[in-house]
Amino acid sequence: MAKTNNTEDSKSSGAGGSLEDSGMYVFMDEVEPETISPIVEWILYENYVVPVKKKELLLMICSEGGDLASAFALIDVMNSSAIPIKTVGLGQIASCGLLIFMSGERGRRVLTPNTSILSHQFSWANEGKAHELFATIREYELTQKRMLELYRRCTDLNDAQIKEYLLPAQDRWLDADEALKLGICDTISYPNQQPQAKKARAK
User: Fold this and answer.
1) What does the pLDDT look like over 65-101, one tens digit per residue?
2) How many CB atoms lie under 10 A from the CB of residue 59?
3) Alpha carbon distance 159, 140 (integer Å)
4) Kind of pairing, strands 172-174 and 116-119?
5) Who has the most CB within 10 Å: 51, 61, 89, 168?
6) Collapsing DSSP states into helix, strand and coil, what is residue 173?
7) What's domain 8-188's architecture?
């Protein structure tokens, strides 16, 4: 089920309020417009409605991925937030779920030790007449460009390294230590503990 946002229902969820009221959002779902919309609204609410701004927003992610356009919509909102967004990956962050995780504030992207990470090229099914398919190639090219720019910005790897280590022809599964070395995350720890590993860089 998609998680609810800080609407009137979530605002009245007990005397202590909801997790969103405390600046935390737990996303454990596929990436789709209807599941991403509440997160976008939460970030906008915290930035533009709440009178006293929080020092940090915490987005915890366990997702097998899904719709790439929805992921980029959220990523753009995250990048525009005046409040730093800490991301915590746990369980599994795969495909565009990984892209969302990587887009957290640099220095505040945490993987729990047992997280599985999947990085791969995007897939896209389309059909139509020949001229329609040729026209669609332009969007394929733009999407590939967006992907590489995001990986460069989030990892500091160059295009050749990204294609070798993170976007090869086959799926690339990583553990937390490998993700740390490639710059996907900044630290490895449990959410309520001090980091267990210092950042390392791929050679």
Assistant:
1) 999 999 999 999 999 999 999 999 999 999 999 999 9
2) 23
3) 17
4) antiparallel
5) 89
6) strand
7) Alpha-Beta Complex (3.90)
